[in-house]
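Title: Request for sanity check on Vacuolar protein sorting-associated protein 11 homolog prediction

Description:
We are preparing a figure and want to confirm that the structure record we downloaded matches what your pipeline produces today. Could someone re-run it with the sequence below and paste the raw structure tokens into this thread? We only need the token string, no images.
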Amino acid sequence: MYQWRKFDFFEEKYGGKSLIPEEVTGKIECCSSGRGKVVVGCDDGTVSLLDRGLKFNFGFQAHSNSVLFLQHLKQRNFLVTVGKDEQISPQQSAVCLKVFDLDKMEPEGTSTTSPDCIGILRIFTNQFPEAKITSFIVLEEAPPILLIAIGLDNGCIYCIKGDIARERITRFKLEVDSLLDKSHCSITGLGYRVDGQALQLFAVTPNSVSLFGLQNQPPRRQTLDQIGGNVNSVTMSDRSELIIGRPEAVYFYEVDGRGPCWAFEGEKRFIGWFRGYLLCVIADQRIGKNTFNIYDLKNRLIAHSLVVKEVSHMLCEWGNIILIMTDKSALCVGEKDMESKLDMLYKKNLYTVAINLVQSQHADAAATAEVLRKYGDHLYSKQDYDEAMAQYIHTIGHLEPSYVIQKFLDAQRIYNLTNYLEKLHEKGLASKDHTTLLLNCYTKLKDVEKLNLFIKSEDGVGEHKFDVETAIRVCRAANYHEHAMYVAKKAGRHELYLKILLEDLGRYDEALRYISSLEPSQAGVTVKEYGKILIEHKPVETIDILMRLCTEDGESARRGSSSTYISMLPSPVDFLNIFIHHPQSLMDFLEKYTNKVKDSAAQVEIHNTLLELYLSNDLNFPSISQENNGVDLSLIARSGAILGSKAESNGKVIADRKDIYKDKDCLERREKGLHLLKIAWPSDLEHPLYDVDLAIILCEMDAFKEGLLYLYEKMKLYKEVIACYMQAHDHEGLIACCKRLGDSGKGGDPTLWADLLKYFGELGEDCSKEVKEVLTYIERDDILPPIIVLQTLSRNPCLTLSVIKDYIARKLERESKLIEEDRRAIDKYQEDTLTMRKEIQDLRTNARIFQLSKCTACTFTLDLPAVHFMCMHSFHQRCLGDNEKECPECAPEYRSVMEMKRGLEHNSKDQDRFFQQVKSSKDGFSVIAEYFGKGVISKTSNGPTDTNRSGSTSSGNGF
């Protein structure tokens, strides 16, 4: 006890001077507390209730003679008392037990009131003989059920269980000691222990400590110790432990026997328990006074100590400890607040005590962390950095890390700082900056082992205890690339893993293998990001990976070849940007793709890109320009021989070799381009599988004549086709093209020959041979009149008349024949017309003699009545029926002529058709003449200005 420090963690309340109120006149025999009241019982039978500050509330006469024991219940506002009343008969004991309901008051006189007494019970009966009561305790099992234990001086315990108010009780007796000397078996203390459904009762005598299991019937007794204790030196802790104070020590008892003991010397007058503190009133024989000590057993310190008078009772209420002296004075002691206690310890630099104190008081973590911080600051000021850091580590989660980091950065204690940052990461409270600082510490210390442990921890915590990007960035900056790769791979940060492999280490093969191991979606993302580097160093392997991604090769083929899956595959167009500086590799990739996939959704874009590559004149080939070893020696020798000298071959020959390679490759690419133009525009498709306008622009820009001619011809732009030949002055090809495209019988355009003739007429050079050939086809198809041919060719001063002499002669001869044929036709038509007019005049002026003797219809002899027609046909009237106005024989011919006339008149009103015939005809004049000849077109008369113009078609009279 003398080794324990003493502190004033408690203080005296009410100025340290309190008195029991004067209304309490008798000697205090017993006390109890609960529900905000202090209840005292006196030897005059009165019970008084005191409020906070020991102020008198009210009192009443509970028993006639004296109150021996009382207990204020907690769950219900009941007061159970044991006292002496007037003895009615010698056979009945004067000791009885009463239960008062303090919530119900009965008027008693005019000046006082008393609570309602709801039950009175005689303790001693014939079965339970009377003895001196030495201890008393009440347990509220389930109100109003009470379990009352009464300890006697003869070693017996009378137990009463039930509802006393309704007189529904059971009694039973417990035997503690059966010694002959009853003076040493008095029950000096009782205590209940409730553990779940188990109910146990501690019983203490001067010579023993016993435990009864009340859940058993009959109750089973267990002896815990052969040494007991005296009255007032027995109490119960808040953990249901029995505490016994003896002169040499204070002992704690559990259900299985004696537990820990504390060696506090001196006679223990009173033993109590308050909020985890042990209360002892010890008689000090050396000074002849009593000392009241409050022990903090967890922290091994005396929380308060003071010298007191003779104590008669000790109890706890209102958060205070109340000592009632024999002279009716009282002392109230209350605990100071935590802040005051800590300030007291801080002033004495007792930080370890402060830490133990807040932990034992179950203070919140923030308060504990504050104490630890102050302790750490104290150690830091003493330059005890290791211990200071040990304290700061315990504050993680409550103290701002920057507070600690700043201190140890200033002190340049990198080892302590590293330890703190490690703990910060273990608890998952580190930020990106903390991760950066810790990794920098490792790299500064060159502690690879700890760096491995931090990054490559096998417990899986490493996935979340630091920021991945920060760790990778710091490791890369410190050239710990393997560690950075490990973190990136473990965290699934494929882009960072590849960034290290490619940019820092240049391990391209490993990067390609890693990409191949990824899921297709992830592999596609990584290739898009790092494909430029891969194409530059490993073009073939990278193209293979792209082919697996964009087609159904490899693992992806196992998923099936459904159209849904194919549509989910990435398109080559998505990867075009990675080939920005490597067109040759792009061309190889797209060629492989188009050879494998024929129905890609992006085939138009792919074909457009391929065309641009095929037709480009300045496509670079770094793989060829960088080759120095793979030189064709025979080519160099031949080139050197041509150039003449060996010295020049060292420079110019190599340049020529490159030009030869370039020209050869350009030709090959153009052949591929022309092939692509043809196969991507099948005959069954109206539009090609590429952008026609773009293809024409590319052919124009790169002077790709073959492709341009194919596109124009495919689009039926024949004039543009011959314009290409004209621009190139390719006369032979021009004439061959017109032969192919100018044949109207095969759907060609004959007017091409006219354009060709015009071209030669404006050429300004001798092209007699070509003109003669062109005139042959113009003459064959009668494309142009001779006058137009003459006018066109007259513009070329280099052409002579001999070029067209034969052509003009043939045309004139042919025209002469046509004129002669037209004259003969005119004469014949004039003769026929004259004959018709004479016949008409004869019909109008002369009579007709009908001499037919047979009916034209039935061929029988003609008899009357008969009908004769001017066409010299005769019929029986009966054979004509109702149709007597026209000849049945001539009527069909007449009707066909009239129908033809009406058709011509209708066509004359269809102006669009008329002009279309004029336009499409080789000789429009002949069409107009034909319309005039058929009498369709006639002169129109001008009517009044306010009426519409109308044309009348004239026709000859017919039969």
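Thanks, this matches our download. The CA atoms of residues 249 and 263 lie 4 Å apart.
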